[in-house]
Amino acid sequence: MTAPSSNDRFKKLLTDNGTLLTGEALRQLTVFDFNNQNPKNAPGGSILLATVDNFPILQGLDIAGTISFVEPCGLNIPHMHPRADEFFFTVEGILDTGFVKENGFNTEIETQLGKYQGTVFPMGSMHYQQNPTCKPAVFVAALNSADPGRSDIATSFWMLPNDVINSALGFPNTIGGGNIEAWRSHLPINLAAGVDSCLKRC
What we know:
Layout: H1 6-14, E1 15-16, E2 19-20, H2 23-30, E3 45-50, E4 64-70, E5 75-80, E6 86-92, E7 95-100, E8 109-113, E9 117-121, E10 126-130, E11 137-143, E12 151-152, H3 153-157, H4 162-169, H5 180-185, E13 191-192, H6 196-201
């Protein structure tokens, strides 16, 4: 990060005492393997994002990328990237997507993507993807930051103090201080199993 130029960063990363690394040592630093996904992370599928954290060669390049395998009815839960716009492509199956921008543009932009079709999610917009079919789907996404970040909306919201959650939801008789912990314990990670109507149909 402190190297003065792009060339200096590449030399520091890819050489050993001035000699270019070779073989597996070089491959480990220049190839990101999206096959290393853990499908046990969530019942709805798996997702792996290459960022500067796990792929250091991205430092200074302002790019990141992800591949996700979405199970039938799987849902990539509503989230946002605070530091990146996203260009999103379906490469297998069908995915429903939607995003909501900030206050003042109070309409959800929804679309359905088939194979080799894409859309965008602007920086900071809340967005999601869902597989509405009984067959697996796969998507690829490119982001214009090496450190795009990800905030899962529901998870982040439920980290707030109980009285703030109650007031924000306006339903203190339904969600109260006594059952907020129970709500928190059922929140999915990233890819959820999906919506009931799809699961019942499949």
